[in-house]
């Protein structure tokens, strides 16, 4: 009988299951001191209020206004467009694609549970132009989401929308979600009287899915955000155990760190459900931006989708370099299943499939892939969800957030900052002539010219 909650199964990471490439009892013993130190640091941050994401699942002061606003937008508007990038879009996009009707945008308003929500998160002009030209702007709300209030991609899109709508309609059809006190967008909100909600200063963008940044668009899409928060709260309770062996986040983060020490620093999230495809993009940002802080440590996250990527990445995973750890995600009960009809039974390739279901086929492919990797001495862990519903997705998101925070301290880095992205922002601003960027413009001017021997036209 399937479990009623998320299950983490790390059996196929162990020496007894996959041989010398697996982890031994001694490996876990070697991590105990670092794990205890990481636990203390997390609890110190929690006690000081600096571990902002930890309290979000049941923080009614943050949750309730966000859900009320999202539900209002669902009633008032046909479309909601999220102007945001990175942590300001990936979490909400992952949840909506997991829990919303995958093809609901094709349905008339009367058959949809919420607004159509769009995420034009890149500043590609072709994409943004196409979206704006196809939307009825009069029935569209724009959510401007940027914690800093100065994100160039987001503010540039906002300026385009302002020109299309006009300043009076902009106030009526735009909501800002940003820092409560600081930043250029917050100043515009004050000066022009926009509706807005805050992103708590103690919550980084990639951990912000349960703030207004995620909850407003999630609720606007008609997704059950309250159950999402409930699932996250239930996982948080499990993640408060100090023991590496009893805390799923600590075990998950610890296993990744142990394998990284052995040179397995490519970490693959491999859900076997189309609904969880965008969770992979969210995971990549969470893992990379939190842990890639040192020239000597920092894993490379990849995302895959089963069974599709059995026909692309699996060959590399099975016989390429021994530098990867796979985290499979399986689903015990698909939301909908479809029986495979019996036909052409005289042909073996058809006969054995008849009478099975597509859901059974998909899960058999997951199990078979994990077993095949294990036979080759290639480790994996498996996260099993009872089903893809709001509660389970809440569990899954919080599990990875907590595992990321814990892993950060095992790696010896601060998992809550991202200093490595500043140089790119500075040089971009210099290229666009932002005042105050003169020193960065000089940096660019001092760069060597392209080598003509390696420029082919």
From TrEMBL:
The record's InterPro entries line, in alphabetical order, gives: G6P_Isomerase, Phosphoglucose_isomerase_CS, SIS_dom, SIS_dom_sf, SIS_PGI_1, SIS_PGI_2
What's one GO BP annotation on this UniProt entry? gluconeogenesis
Which organism's genome codes for this protein? Vulgatibacter incomptus
Which protein is depicted? Glucose-6-phosphate isomerase
Q: In which pathway does it act?
A: Carbohydrate biosynthesis; gluconeogenesis; Carbohydrate degradation; glycolysis; D-glyceraldehyde 3-phosphate and glycerone phosphate from D-glucose: step 2/4
EC number(s) from the headed UniProt entry: 5.3.1.9
Per the database record, which ranges form the SIS domain? 69-228
Entry keyword Isomerase: yes
């Amino acid at each position: 009988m399937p479990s009623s909650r998320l299950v983490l199964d790390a059996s196929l990471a162990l020496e007894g299951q996959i041989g010398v490439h697996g982890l031994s009892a001694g490996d876990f013993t070697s991590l105990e001191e670092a794990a205890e130190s990481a636990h203390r640091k997390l609890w110190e941050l929690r006690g000081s209020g600096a571990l902002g994401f930890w309290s979000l699942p049941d923080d009614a002061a943050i949750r309730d206004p966000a859900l009320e606003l999202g539900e209002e937008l669902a009633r008032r508007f046909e479309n909601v467009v999220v102007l945001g990038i990175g942590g300001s879009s990936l979490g909400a996009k992952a949840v909506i694609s997991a829990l919303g009707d995958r093809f609901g945008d094709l349905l008339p308003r009367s058959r949809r549970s919420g607004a159509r929500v769009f995420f034009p998160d890149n500043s590609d002009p072709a994409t943004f132009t196409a979206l704006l030209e196809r939307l009825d702007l009069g029935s569209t709300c724009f959510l401007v989401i940027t914690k800093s209030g100065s994100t160039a991609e987001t503010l540039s899109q906002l300026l385009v929308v302002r020109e299309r709508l006009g300043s009076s309609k902009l106030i009526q059809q735009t909501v800002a979600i940003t820092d409560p006190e600081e930043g250029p967008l917050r100043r515009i909100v004050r000066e022009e009287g926009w509706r807005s909600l805050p992103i708590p200063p103690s919550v980084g963008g990639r951990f912000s899915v349960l703030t207004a940044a995620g909850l407003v668009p999630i609720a606007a899409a008609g997704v059950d955000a309250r159950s999402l928060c409930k699932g996250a709260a239930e996982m948080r309770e499990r993640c408060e155990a100090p023991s590496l062996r009893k805390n799923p986040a600590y075990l998950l983060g610890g296993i990744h760190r142990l394998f990284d020490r052995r040179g397995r620093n490519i970490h693959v999230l491999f859900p076997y459900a189309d609904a969880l495809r965008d969770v992979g993009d969210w995971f990549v940002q969470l893992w990379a931006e939190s842990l890639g802080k040192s020239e000597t440590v920092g894993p490379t996250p990849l995302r895959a989708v089963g069974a599709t990527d059995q026909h692309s990445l699996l060959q590399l995973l099975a016989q390429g370099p021994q530098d990867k750890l796979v985290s499979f995600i399986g689903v015990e009960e698909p939301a909908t299943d479809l029986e495979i009809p019996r036909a052409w039974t005289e042909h073996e390739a058809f006969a054995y499939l008849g009478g099975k279901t597509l859901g059974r086929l998909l899960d058999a492919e997951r199990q078979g892939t994990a077993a095949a990797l294990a036979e080759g001495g290639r480790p994996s862990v498996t996260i099993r969800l009872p089903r893809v519903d709001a509660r389970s997705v809440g569990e899954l998101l919080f599990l990875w957030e907590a595992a990321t925070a814990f892993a950060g301290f095992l790696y010896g880095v601060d998992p809550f900052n991202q200093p490595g992205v500043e140089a790119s922002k500075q040089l971009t601003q210099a290229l666009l002539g932002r005042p105050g960027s003169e020193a960065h413009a000089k940096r660019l001017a001092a760069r060597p010219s392209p080598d003509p021997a390696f420029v082919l036209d």
